[in-house]
């Protein structure tokens, strides 16, 4: 009998004795390793009884059964694409209190791609949509030694929605950032998970370049929040400006490579960044930015 899963060493409600396990594996097992396995099974009792997934079954194939394995793995991967509702989607529906249609989700996936051509910016957007960041609440279900309380010490449970926008300390940061975005672009963006995190804001008259700028400013704010994710620290406006500045530089390099030299007419770089640069030029906001330029000093790299 192969030993592939925890359930294979189960004996009633407990696991096999050390001697039984040694006989089964025909190997000497150190008592400390045995205690580790025994301890783990106390927390993983549910996992012990779950049936093998299709992928786990493939991993168990014998040499003879391995024929056609690549095709079977492809079939499993492709079947995931047919899924109409990913786990992250249903969680977003709960957080936003609305059921989004498949068409809306297509828009969300597309907008995360078109926010920027810079891969690191796209990656950050994807991580948030897929709810990649581990929260205190989730970690406490993985290990009982972790506290479910928010890392910012507000004494509330640190769920995904709490850590990103519900925590009073984080909400203050968002309020400040959205106020500055209003000053930069003249558009009022409400603090709504659907708008801020899924890019579902629909202002028909907004110019495309300004829409792109707002999307980048929001990504920078999310990045600032993620940079102090596990710390007691709260993100600040200065951190956000610094993150935005990093994105400006990346976007400029990207624009130079893709558009500026060969297709200058396609570039909306200047229209997109002008309101932001004008704002930081008018307000003496951040040393990193202050050293870098004023609008006129910057004219040589346009
Ligand atoms: Zn909190």
UniProtKB/TrEMBL annotation:
It comes from the Eukaryota. It comes from Eublepharis macularius. This is Deoxynucleotidyltransferase terminal-interacting protein 1 isoform X3. The lineage of its organism: Eukaryota, Metazoa, Chordata, Craniata, Vertebrata.
